[in-house]
Amino acid sequence: MAYGRSMRLNPVILISGAASGAGAAAARALAPRAQGGLILVGADGGELDKVADSLINPPERVSTLAFDVADDDRWTQAGNFIESQYGRLDWAIVSYAPPAEAETDLVSWGDEPPQELRGAFFTLRALMLLMQRNTQGGAIVITAPAGAFERELSGAAENGLLSLVRMAAKEGAHDNVRINAVAFADDAGASWPEMAHVADLVRETGSERRAFERISHLPLPMARYTVSGDAGRLFASLLADESPMTGAVLVVDGGYAL
């Protein structure tokens, strides 16, 4: 179900949180497609080097940028580096891991995002600034544990990761920058609200593109996506220019844990 024919030529791809389970999996899955270059971002330079060394068929250019993604100034420096060395950024995977001691409730953001979301907020802002200069726009996929969305959906919290995804997707639409999220569930997710299954929508609509378009028009743009082994094909589908979906969350049963 991948959109092989619509993948742009020589894309430059960035993986933030590349040393995490989902981030490393995304790097390995997307490295052969990153003919324009691959940029790995994370806090531990040694771990990033290990991920880079593990890549099969890596692109000619692979850069590792080790810094705290919650540091806005370092993202400014990273943006300048990417622009000067690569000229553009096409696609990105952002691996989000909630802090071990998150606040029980998120308050209104005001001028600054809550501490738990600073890394995701600054990451998205930097990547969107780079992508908005592209004539073809770009695409970002945020990966996170399913629990990062559950409390907000249940009404137990507000202004969390789900709100950030939707706010960024709305802002990015002006520049054809699509932003979606992939939530990795550890089990069947019985506590989740009833939602459509991507496989059923593909059968009903006749193609994955039409299924994604159907999801984007749902009152709650969420659906289940069952994978076996890894989510590389899902990442590729969401990043492809042919995909019409933005601001949606796909809850993945199986695949790599964070």
Explain how this protein is built.
The protein is of the alpha/beta class and 258 residues long. Helix content is 36%, strand content 19%. It has nine helices and nine strands. The chain has a nine-stranded parallel beta sheet, with helices on both faces. Strand 8 (222-226), helix 9 and strand 9 form a beta-alpha-beta unit. The chain is globular and about 45 Å long.
Show the helix and strand layout.
Layout: E1 12-16, H1 21-30, E2 37-42, H2 45-54, E3 62-66, H3 72-85, E4 91-95, H4 118-131, E5 138-145, H5 147-154, H6 161-172, E6 177-185, E7 196-197, H7 198-205, H8 208-216, E8 222-226, H9 232-239, E9 249-253
Helix pairs in contact: 1-9, 3-4, 4-6, 7-8
Quick summary of this structure?
The chain is 36% helix and 19% strand. By secondary structure, it is an alpha/beta fold. Strands 3-2-1-4-5-6-9-8-7 form a nine-stranded parallel β-sheet, with helices on both faces.
